[in-house]
Structure formats: C-alpha cells, structure tokens
Design brief:
mainly alpha; two-stranded parallel sheet; 11 helices; 69% helix
C-alpha cells in the first residue's frame, strides 16, 4: 500500500510540474510573439519563478496523488466516472460550484496572505516578481503553496463531481493562474470590459493587484472584491510595457557604452 501511495504522489507531482511547464511555456511563447521584448531583462526573475513553481508542484501533487489513489482503491472522494450517476444538469452546476467555492477560499486566504507578518514570511515570494510573467503562476513560498494545494482536495471529499468536470475545473485553474500574470490581455474584450467583465477576473484585473497590493484579491470572479470593497477596477498594462521598453533601452545603452570603451582602448593601444 505504501508503495502504491508513494508512486501515485510522485506521478501526480510529475503531472502538475509538466502541466505547469507546458502551459506557462506556451503562454510565454505567445507573449514573445505578441509582445516581443516584454520579458526582456527578466531572465533571472523567470528562473526564480520556475524554481519556486516546481517546488510548489510537489506540494500540490502529493495530496492530489494520495487522494487519486484513495479514490480508485477505496472510494475516498466524491468524484464519479459514470456520467449518469447524477442528472446531466448537475455537470455545469458542479463546475460553477467548485469554481465559486475555490474562488471564495482563494480570496480569503489571499487577503490573509497580505497581513504584514504573513506577507513578509510567505507571500512576498510571489510579489517579488515585478512584473510577474507567465512563469509566475505557481511561484509560491511553501506556506502559500499549502493553502492553495488543499482547496480542491477538500472539495472532492465533500461535493460530488464527474471526473471530466473536475478536469475542466483544474484546466480553468491552470489557465487563469498563468494568464492572470503574463502582462497582457489574452481574452476577448467583452470578457474584461462591459457587463461580463464587471464580474470576471482576467489579467487586466489581477495586474492592478500586483501594482497596488491591497486590492483585487480574487481568482475567477469579482464578487468578493466588490462585496468587501477591495475591487479597484482594471489596469491597462501601460506601465508594465513602458518598463519593458526602458529595460531594453538601458541594456542597449550599456552594450553601446561597453563597445565604445572597447574601441577606445583599441585605439589607445
């Protein structure tokens, strides 16, 4: 039994890590194609983001792997694979329920992470990315990773969900975690402007959190931010893109100065 549990935990850790690398890598490539130079000069930061994220993959993967084994071996969870076990209308309802409860957990734990002592001890790791990139989605201190890793396992122990619907929830969590941090808006305008944008969270909303810290704590929906008075609207990425241009100009200037000094030394010789 111990060997089976260990192998399941290791397999899930590998899955979470590879999923992170594939999704973050894909959106990083999309960023390079859509906004060339946006991440220029951030190589050291991105290496740090990847390192923290892969460490977080283990923290997310271990409890998921244990529950995956327990589901198959002992039926520990409320995950079901017979689509007819519950009415078909329950499939979308369960997805929305999981997203709403996960968003609630995220909002309140995220606000807790911004208490001065907790921020200094843990959440500062995530906010050290200035600006965040597509690689920052899971760049968490272990304390923060634990608060995120327990949310879905707790839900599958309590609320029935089809395995396919659970996959959709996990895919949504992964994509939103990456796109919210990548420094530009990948979604259509109607999703972040207008009536629908008033309730959904995309990169435009989360960018303001990374600029101002004490606001915009949600993950998927703006409900809790609006209810609790912590919603400060959306950003426009102008500052992030201007800083990228400034980094590029500074690097070019430094390279030019170095080349000029080298030519001067050659002439003097």
């Amino acid at each position: 039994m111990l060997l089976a549990v260990t192998l399941s935990a290791l397999a899930m850790t590998l899955i979470v890590g590879v999923r992170y690398l594939i999704v973050s890598g894909a959106f990083a490539l999309a960023t390079r194609a859509r906004h060339p130079g946006l991440y220029r000069g951030l190589d050291a930061q991105m290496r740090r983001e990847v390192a923290w994220s892969l460490a977080s993959a283990a923290i997310y993967g271990i409890p998921a792997g244990v529950l995956a084994w327990g589901w198959r071996a002992h039926g520990w969870t409320r995950v079901y694979d017979d689509v007819h076990a519950y009415p078909l209308w329950y499939l979308p309802v369960s997805v929305l329920l999981y997203l709403a409860l996960h968003d609630t957990w995220f909002y309140w734990t995220h606000r807790w992470m911004h208490r001065p002592a907790v921020f200094k001890a843990a959440h500062a790791v995530h906010h050290a990315s200035r600006p965040p990139t597509a690689w920052a989605a899971m760049a968490f201190h272990p304390i923060e990773a634990v608060t995120g890793a327990v949310a879905i396992p707790l839900l599958v122990l309590a609320i029935p969900i089809h395995v396919g619907a659970l996959g959709f929830v996990l895919a949504t969590m992964t994509v939103m975690g990456v796109t919210n941090h990548m420094g530009w808006e990948v979604f259509p305008r109607f999703m972040w402007r207008g009536p629908l944008g008033g309730w959904l969270i995309t990169a435009s909303h989360h960018q303001r959190h990374h600029e101002q810290y004490g606001c915009n704590y949600g993950l998927y929906f703006r409900f809790w931010d609006r209810l609790c008075g912590t919603d400060r609207g959306i950003g426009d990425f102008a500052r992030t893109h201007a800083r990228a241009q400034a980094r590029h100009a500074a690097r070019r200037a430094a390279a030019g100065d170095g080349a000029g000094a080298g030519r001067g030394a050659d002439r003097a010789a």
